[in-house]
Amino acid sequence: MGLHYTKFGGGKIYWASRPCLSLDEAASQVQYLLTRQDTRDIYVSLATQREAETRTNGGTGRSYKVAIRLAENAVALNSLFMDIDVGKKDGYQTGAEAVTALGKFIEDAKLPKVTAVVQSGSGGLHVYWVLADALTPDEWQPLANGLCNAARQHGMHFDSQVTVDRVRILRVPGTYHWKTGTPKPVELKLLRDTNVLNEKMVAALTPYITAEDIEHKPVLERRAPIVEESEFSAGIQVGAAPRRIADLQNACPWIKHSLDTGGADNDNMLRRIAYQIATFCEETDGVAWSLMDQRATLTQEEFWEQLDRAKADREKGNRGFPTCAAISRAGATQCKTCPHLTLGKTPLTAPGALTPTNTLPVPTEDLGWVPQGYSKNALGQIVAIITDADGSQKPQLVFPLPIKHPWITSDGKEHCLQFQSTYRDGTALAVSIPMSACGTKDTLTRALFKSLVPIRADEKVLAFMEAFLQKLQSAAKSVIQSDPFGWNFKGAEYEGFTYGGKLFNAKGEHPAPPPEPALREQYMPCGADGKWIEAARLITDQQRPALDCILASAFASPLVRLVGEVDGVVIGAVSRASGVGKTTTLKIAQAVWGNPVTAPQGLDDTINSVFVKAGKIKNLPIYFDEIKTPSQTLGFVKLMFQLTGGKEKSRATREGGLAKQHSWSTLLIYASNESLYDAVLKSMATSNAGHMRMFEFTVPPITEDQRCPMLGEMVRKLRDNYGEAGLRYAKYIGENYEAMHDRINQTRIDWENYLHAEPDERFWVAALTVLTVGAQVANEIGLTSFDVDGLTGFLESEFLRMRGEKNMAPNDLSKTGNVASILGDFLAERMLAHSITTNRVLITRGKPAANAVAVEGEGTSRLDRLQGLEIQFGRENQLLRISDSALGIWLKAREISKSSFLQAMEAQLGAKSTHGRLGSGTKYADQITRKLWQIPLAGTELEQFLEGNEVSPAASEAA
Fold it and tell me: What is the distance between the alpha carbons of residues 398 and 401, in angstroms, rounded to a whole number?
């Protein structure tokens, strides 16, 4: 028997297999595979195989065996089986419903009881009737066909291809189902001790077996014979000339329907027939994909595996072309009204299917971009023009997907080939291929797969791609240079707003370069905007302006660029209480542009990574949630200062040059349990610049009537429905740039005049401007229902509150009281062990006479314990002298800028720089001359320190 499994490596899923000679060996192999971290899904072949294949490891030279899963290699089967769908659109909705239907089917069809039931991990059930005696494939096939017919007749929802496939693989109980990305256990739900007697199974299924079911094809030897006449061959030679799918769709309504719908409604039996048809056509891979690219449960791994099997069966003579009767029996409803069904033939020989053609197909659109020597067929696929020896021309399929509206984009570093295509149901497919990936078959294949184009690049594809790119590059209008996000300008000339692979301006919608893969996953639109609109309404209906501010920030961020005076604005939502809605609203706001789970910044993200991201998304908002610890707060404050500067720091390259500086103009929005106001004050103790860059407001507690139980579920839905609201908003502001620019400018002027805003309040005014205009526009284009009046009233009150805090901010060194307060802290801390008070401070030059200056408190223990003189008070001339170095050390320890403080001390307190010796004229005098600061005390708040030094000797001793 063969074990077949998938493993993960290099970002891809690979198939592998191991042949096993016994059940014990198979069980041992399964246990081993489960210990490997790269193992994913594990299957077992339900037919024993005649032989395995020996291969050699190119790296080690060691040989190893792999299982071969081909119909001609099957030896025996000892079970019949069914795969029952659960949770799919056309299947049972619950496992219990499937079990009930299975029981009714067994009873109605008078079948023996099942031997085993396995829950597949996806919700489906694998049902087995294990036979007492193994059957050859020829004996097994009629019974399998009969079971399939019985299940269809009794209305079972099941995968018919599984039941009749003699080399089917199914999941092993005790392993895991990985296809959804999250491992789910494959569990054995039922196992009976006894197997089903072959006689009982034959008796039960005989009424459902037809003459066609008995006409099975015998197992063939390894040769290329003429396949016998049967429903799978209809007299067609295995080596028959390949057919064109465009011709076959004219002969067979089911083939045409499958091409039109991408096989979306074909079950697995019809999908198997589609693979067979593709093996008889030119460019098998492209035809196969076109016949089934809309199958919801089809993965690329399964596609290639099944197609490779169909090709191998065709080459070895195991499959002929299916008859009309076989297609009809598999469930193709189009056959019921097709006259070819009564002829007992195959679509391959239907009238018109074999008509030769030497004329080129009529192009379906302007082919100005198609390189010489190529054209497009009726399906829109690229074909090469081949000229035969007799001068006649025929098309050779090169690229099986339609190519529409191609162009080349550049972000200044990488050129990408872009084009649009469609699946058969009309669903758009945007393809982006870096030009650097077009040089080899392997790199081009990987790039195609990344764009969901399952085409294996060969020499024909490479040659076309080279000619295609040359043709596009020769047309300057086909090369578009723009950033993948935000406002784009060429010099001072406006070009448009970019988002979702589109550039919007007054002329309409244009293609734009896609972002890099990581950002593409986070920020490319996904799903529908209806889910977002519903979630947003649950916020705005609460009539809570604080939450409206968070939500409106998503629309405000792109408008910061239009304000002109600032490059970054910080908005903070603070609430000590939990469950007030700020985190939920932040996620909904993020979903305007990107994935609400992966797009917001994490607290562990490095500052450099945030700047790089800001430089790439440019004008989209940056969200931070749950800033809690002191280290997180400190890191965020440092990030905030640089982000509002609009560009990252200059960096050197390894070669010694300068790396490209990323720039942006955006909003940074944070949610926190504590205000960041104090942290900002501490980080800029001598300036209010930090405080003025942040617009922070409190989110009030939620009331019972404001609670919305549906919000959590709506936010979960946004994981698959995001970005579409941003796409609509980007289209509007991009197409109305001039009007938006004027609107922002007028709103800013209105706010400035209304609030009598001061120059240092420009960041706050910018925040109010973009929030109000963003909310208004979102309402106007039907995305939101903000209470704009309530929002503007809230913003006004918060502005005035912050203005009051600004006027009382202790780090504003433009205010004399703040400078005196800081200096007072220094004096209070250092005075006891480092100061003296004298009758006067000598300010004359020359060496003074001994004891020319009297020291107050002479002989007290405090003066005896002086640890170094830093401060001197002069009572008669009301002067204070301070050591410049001592003051500098103290300021540095408190992260206060020395230069800023000294400038303020000069301006606010009349301080003057001088050189001299502290305590000059006393026995405590410095031995060297040093830089000092001299400050007049009269009339200042510092005068209290001189008064406080009037201490009697007795009191000083007591102290």
Answer: 9
What architecture (CATH level 2) is domain 522-649+659-736? 3-Layer(aba) Sandwich (3.40)
**Distance set, CA 261 to CA 258, 381, 425 (Å):** 5, 16, 5
- pLDDT of the residue at 938: 84
Quick one: tokens of 273? Answer: 């027939």
Candidates 834, 854, 833; CA nearest to 921 is 854
Q: What is the pLDDT of residues 289-317, one digit of tens each?
A: 888 877 767 776 677 778 888 887 777 65
Domain ranges of the chain: 2-214, 245-349, 374-481, 522-649+659-736, 816-958
Per-residue model confidence as pLDDT tens digits over 221-231 = 222 222 333 33
Angstrom distance (rounded) from CA 569 to CA 565:
11
Task: Considering only the C-alpha atoms of the chain, give the largest distance between any 2 of them, rounded to a whole number of Å.
Answer: 134
Rounded mean pLDDT, 791-813 = 81
Tell me if 465 sits within 8 A of 436, measured CB to CB: no
How is residue 715 written in tokens? 């936010």
Dist CA 670 CA 637 (whole Å): 11
Give the C-alpha separation, 867 to 602, whole Å. Answer: 49
Q: By C-alpha distance, which of 949, 954, 927, 952 is closest to 872?
A: 949
Neighbours of 742 (CB within 10 A): 12
For residue 448, give the nearest of 285, 642, 583, 575 by alpha carbon: 285
**Residue 798, SS3?**
helix
Query: Rounded to an integer, what distance in angstroms lies between the CA atom of residue 104 and that of residue 71?
Result: 33
Chain-centre distance for alpha carbon 27: 39
Q: What is the mean pLDDT of the chain?
A: 79
Q: From CA 343, how far away is CA 594, in angstroms rounded? A: 56
Mind listing the pLDDT tens digit for each residue in 568-588?
788 989 887 777 888 899 999
More confident position, 11 or 448: 448
Q: Name the nearest CA neighbour of 802 among 666, 693, 958, 685.
A: 693
- How far from the centroid of its chain's Cα atoms is residue 577's Cα? 31
Using one digit for the tens of pLDDT, what is the confidence trace for 329-356? 788 888 877 766 655 567 765 444 443 3
pLDDT of residue 351: 44
Q: Are the CB atoms for 587 and 718 separated by under 8 Å? A: yes
Alpha carbon distance 307, 289 (integer Å):
9
| Distance in angstroms (rounded) separating the CA atoms of residues 817 and 836 | 25
The architecture CATH gives domain 2-214: 2-Layer Sandwich (3.30)
Q: Which residues have a Cβ under 8 Å from the Cβ of 29 and sit 6 or more positions away?
A: 3, 18, 20
CB of 376 within 8 A of CB of 382? yes
Instruction: Evaluate whether 328 touches 344 at the Cβ level (below 8 Å).
Output: no
Check whether 247 has a pLDDT greater than 80: no
Extended beta strands in 517-630, E state: 568-574, 622-627
CA distance 595 to 724: 11
Residue matched to tokens 């000590």: 576
State the pLDDT at residue 216.
40
The one-character DSSP state at 447 is: H
Structure tokens at 143: 């019974």
